[in-house]
Write a structure and sequence with these properties.
The complex is a heterodimer of chains A (248) and B (76). Chain A contains seven helices and seven strands. By secondary structure, chain A is α/β, with parallel strands linked by helices. Chain B is an all-alpha fold and 76 residues long. Chain B contains four helices and no strands. The chains are: A alpha/beta (248), B mainly alpha (76).
Chain lengths: 248, 76
């Protein structure tokens, strides 16, 4: 069947695959024919993702990307990739006067330094094949807008966006493409610590022209596009997925 | 942890509401200046000053400043 978005014969590494957007990317990419290597901190939840994937399923790799040894080990465990999806991330909601360096460091470690270093190691060791695609899960926050008490998260996502553009230039000679997807609020457990109440989230949802938050799969479909050969001339771009949020 | 000191710390998060407005009986969510940012500032202040991680629902269930003080005390 004609399908320019197929991921057949591609091996793809997805970080943060134990939950939320990363899990959806892993499952949907496997359904599109990719051989997906998943990694995350929580083995139980990784197993659950693994069980829901289809087709050829390589072993999952447990790794805590806030730990630089784990990042190094992960890259050494990989042999060859056609795609890398940097999805692992966390948020810390603090009004700016309370956002201390240690808070920025905690988030930057996972949202910025880990994907940067993992990508670098995989590129340098030539494990990312020619015409491979690297996708960063950025955000609307820090690129198009921000949110109350969002300075830490916004900084990390803004940094990723800048990084992706420079990487796209430096990796173009290798034929490696680098792009970001920029989701608005997606229905995941990112606010499970409870500083934001369910009521506040429901109120916030009304600010979206399409009147709901996104689903993890809706980010996955965009990532699949950027991983596929259909996006072979796309590099350094941002793909906005926000239900119209940033129009207002 | 003392109630009076807590009221002062609470009041310090506000910019426009005069500190004389704040007593243990103040129904803080009725103040004009109350906002989601202030709720998050109170949560952050309580974490910093008292080492207690409040949830948004704790703020929701408290009416007066004293109610919130008692919630924090029960979590210490």
């Amino acid at each position: 069947m004609y399908n320019p978005f197929s991921l057949e014969n591609k091996t793809i590494l997805v970080t943060g695959a134990s939950s939320g957007i990363g899990r959806a990317i892993a499952i949907e990419s496997s359904k599109m024919g990719a051989s997906v290597i998943i990694t995350g901190r929580n083995e139980e939840r990784l197993k659950e993702t693994h069980a829901r994937m289809e087709g050829n399923k390589p072993d999952y790799i447990v790794a805590d990307l806030s730990n630089s040894d784990d990042v190094q080990n992960l890259s050494e465990n990989i042999t060859s990739l056609n795609g890398l999806v940097n999805c692992a991330g966390l948020t810390k909601v603090l009004p700016f006067p309370f956002a201390e360096r240690k808070d920025f460091e905690e988030v930057m470690k996972v949202n910025f330094f880990a994907p940067t270093e993992l990508s670098r190691l995989l590129v340098k060791s030539k494990k990312l094949q020619k015409s491979a695609s690297i996708v960063f899960i950025s955000s609307v926050s820090g690129v198009y807008c921000s949110a109350v008490a969002g300075s830490i998260y916004s900084s990390s996502k803004g940094a990723i966006n800048g990084l992706a553009k420079a990487m796209a230039l430096d990796l173009a000679p290798k034929g490696i493409r680098v792009n970001c997807v920029n989701p608005g609020m997606i229905d995941t457990h990112i606010f499970s610590e409870g500083k934001i109440t369910q009521e506040q989230l429901k109120e916030d949802m009304k600010r979206y022209p399409l009147k709901r938050y996104g689903k993890p799969e809706e980010v996955a479909y965009a990532v699949i596009y950027l991983l596929s050969d259909a996006a072979e001339w796309i590099t350094g771009s941002n793909l906005l997925i926000d239900g119209g949020y940033t129009l207002l | 942890m003392e109630l009076q000191e807590f009221i002062t710390n609470f009041a310090n998060q506000f910019e426009e509401t005069d500190s004389s407005v704040f007593t243990k009986n103040t129904v803080f969510k009725n103040l004009d200046e109350w906002s989601s940012l202030l709720a998050l500032s109170i949560i952050a202040m309580v974490d910093e000053e008292y080492g207690v991680a409040l949830k948004g629902d704790d703020i929701r269930s408290a009416n007066t400043i004293e109610d919130l003080y008692n919630i924090i005390k029960s979590k210490k």
